[in-house]
Write a structure and sequence with these properties.
The structure holds 2 protein chains of 2 kinds.
Chain A lengths: L2 H45 L4 H4 L13 H7 L6 H32 L5 H11 L4 H14 L7 H8 L4 H13 L2 H9 L4 H12 L1 H17 L2 H6 L8 H10 L6 H21 L1 H11 L3
Helix pairs in contact in A: 3-14, 4-7, 4-8, 4-11, 8-11, 11-15, 13-14
Chain B lengths: L1 H35 L2 E2 L7 E2 L3 H8 L2 H33 L6 H13 L3 H10 L5 H8 L14 H11 L2 H12 L3 H9 L4 H29 L3 H6 L13 H10 L4 H29 L8
Antiparallel strand pairs in B: 1-2
Helix pairs in contact in B: 1-13, 3-7, 3-8, 3-10, 4-8, 8-10, 10-13, 12-13
The chains are: A mainly alpha, B mainly alpha.
Chain lengths: 292, 297
């Protein structure tokens, strides 16, 4: 082995060793950060299985006795059982997701694939609505919906979604639709396909990832939505899960922390399940569109 | 005319749900809110025109308005940089030299998905209580903690920490951006013996500028709109001593607790203008510090 090759070899070995050490350090650091970040969540989970007197005062995650009392009692702790709240949340969420998917994909298809007068003007308007805080439109919308007799129904929560009010998803879908090859539409057009046919049998089937991402995000956001239900739902029978959770706080002092935590855990379960199942779609969706 | 219709009709049919929504749920309400901001309106009797009274009261006599601005601006000024620095730092760690990052990415992103929920706001309240988890950790190190949430000097920081905890989505966007930086730039710098810090300031930061800009604008707007967590943690009132009186919480209370719809509309318009100004500043200054790849050469 000549000198130069030996030196090069040694340098490589040295570099490899340094890199491995660096990697181990990085992993140690990242694992520490992970633990710190996950600790509150595990604490919440553990507390939901602990007897009331054990929740505060100890950092250990493992309950001395594992009990489901908090769940069974918490489910019926409020004047109305959580069964109702979950059904209510499910109704609002499912309808909203359907509304979002239909109306936003319609608008996105027009913006991304069709030529029409005023396209860039309307597109700019749409992008500007992304910036407008919900609080600005809230009061007139409330006055409007009250006059229509919609308060204490799910209409104020659902109908706007059928009118593409979550413009963010339009943006997400436009980004995706634009990447599909133009030739597809042109060939189909020559074959005599109507724009609707092109939308339905070409664009949508090719856009399942984008539709999936939009569906998951809108599902999670609607599920966690608090402000709109807080304003429009006054009757406890129509409460969604987040509103019901808030009721626990109002009864504070009766020390039902365990039950409140148990119900909090349950409210997060659907989100976590969807996250685990569709992690890839979620991550890609954010990376390509830059979601919040 | 017929040709015009034939060319445009399909597009406008597809656009019609959004158009309807735009006029009925966005433009209409925005203009209505502008009108209401010049009135006194309690939802019982009809709106009464009062000219600039709402605005002059707001700027000259309403202490809580200024308090709300102070709280919100402090929060934005602390939470946005904290979250972005955390996001960029972790993204850079994940980007280089590690083969398996999927699990870390998932763990770091999860809080962003859960963070907006009421369950997490409830959890946060308990973490920072006098006998909460945080104080127990501190006690372990021999530090006597206080009740962080009910102390007006510290309550806002608990929300800043909550914001920091949710650094996941800017992190993912940074990761995508870092992937776009050509590796050979770093290799060349390595061969030249450029120190790591200089590699960061001379390669990473400039090439990442568009992504940083994007995240900055997005997170600033988002932070101005913070509501649910502040509402839950402050019991819906902005307590203690208005230290959690976020702008949106104040607006909500004026509108839906005291039914001062006219005044609340004026508050809403001021918020809209603040956000618009911030967005505009970001866009107009961007040409001095953001350079897009394809603009070079």
């Amino acid at each position: 082995m000549d000198e130069a090759a030996r030196v090069a070899h040694e340098m490589r070995l040295k570099r490899d060793r340094r890199e491995r050490n660096g990697r181990i350090l990085k992993h140690l650091f990242l694992i520490t950060v992970s633990c710190v970040m996950l600790y509150p969540l595990f604490w919440l989970l553990a507390s939901s299985f602990k007897p009331e007197n054990e929740i505060f005062g100890s950092l250990t995650l493992w309950p001395s006795q594992f009990q489901l009392d908090n769940y069974t009692k918490g489910w019926n702790a409020l004047p109305i059982s959580f069964t109702t709240f979950y059904i209510n949340s499910a109704i609002v969420t499912v309808l909203s997701v359907i509304g979002n998917l239909i109306s936003c994909s319609f608008a996105a298809y027009a913006f991304a694939r069709l030529q029409f007068t005023g396209r860039s003007f309307f597109f700019a308007l749409m992008m500007m609505t992304l910036m407008v805080p919900y609080h600005v439109v809230l009061i007139p919308q409330y006055v409007q919906f009250l006059a229509l007799g919609w308060v204490d129904t799910y209409l104020p929560l659902v109908v706007p979604r059928f009118l593409a009010s979550d413009a963010f998803f339009i943006f997400l879908m436009v980004q995706f639709f634009r990447q599909l090859p133009r030739e597809l539409d042109e060939a189909a057009m020559i074959d005599g396909c109507s724009p609707f046919k092109i939308y339905w049998s070409i664009i949508l089937p090719l856009s399942l990832p984008a539709m999936g991402t939009a569906a998951i995000f809108s599902l999670i956001w609607v599920w966690e939505d608090f402000l709109a239900p807080l304003i429009y739902l006054n009757d406890i029978k129509s409460y969604t899960v987040p509103l019901a959770l808030r009721l626990f706080l109002d009864q504070e002092g009766q020390s039902a922390y365990g039950q409140m935590f148990a119900m909090s855990v349950l409210s997060l379960v659907p989100v976590v399940i969807f996250f685990v199942l569709f992690q890839k779609l979620i991550v890609r969706g954010i990376a390509t569109s830059g979601m919040k | 005319m017929r040709r015009f219709l034939a060319r445009n009709a399909p597009a406008y049919i597809f656009l019609s749900p959004w158009l309807l929504g735009f006029f009925l749920l966005a433009l209409g309400p925005i203009l209505a809110s502008l009108y209401l901001s010049f009135t006194r309106y309690d939802m019982v009797s009809a709106p009464r025109w009062v000219g600039f009274d709402n605005y002059s009261y707001m700027f000259t006599r309403d202490r809580r308005f200024w308090k709300a601005l102070e709280v919100t601006f402090t929060y934005v000024a602390l939470a946005v940089p904290a979250r972005l620095i955390m996001a960029l730092g972790v993204a850079m760690l994940l980007d280089k030299g590690l083969r398996t990052i999927g699990l870390y990415r998932a763990i770091f992103y999860l809080p962003s998905l859960l963070g907006a929920s009421i369950a997490i706001a409830i959890l946060w309240r308990q973490l920072f209580e006098a006998n909460g988890v945080v104080n127990q950790v501190l006690a372990y190190f021999g530090i006597q903690g206080i009740s962080w949430i009910t102390n007006p000097d510290t309550s806002l920081y608990t929300l800043v920490i909550l914001a920091m905890w949710q650094f996941g989505s800017p992190m993912l966007i940074f990761l995508a951006g870092l992937r776009g930086i050509p590796r050979d730039l770093y290799e060349a710098a390595e061969i030249d013996g450029t120190p790591r810090w200089r590699q960061f300031t001379r390669i990473t930061l400039p090439l990442l500028a568009p992504v940083i800009f994007f995240n900055l604008v997005l997170q600033t707007i988002e932070s101005f709109k913070t509501f649910s967590s502040a509402f839950i943690i402050s019991n819906g009132t902005g307590a203690p001593a208005d230290s959690l009186l976020f702008y949106t919480v104040y607006l909500f209370n004026e509108a839906f607790k005291f039914f001062r719809m006219g005044y609340a509309s004026a508050l809403a318009w001021v918020l809209l203008i603040i956000i618009a100004v911030f967005t505009a500043i970001a866009f107009f200054t961007s040409k001095y510090w953001v350079h897009y790849e394809n603009e070079r050469d």
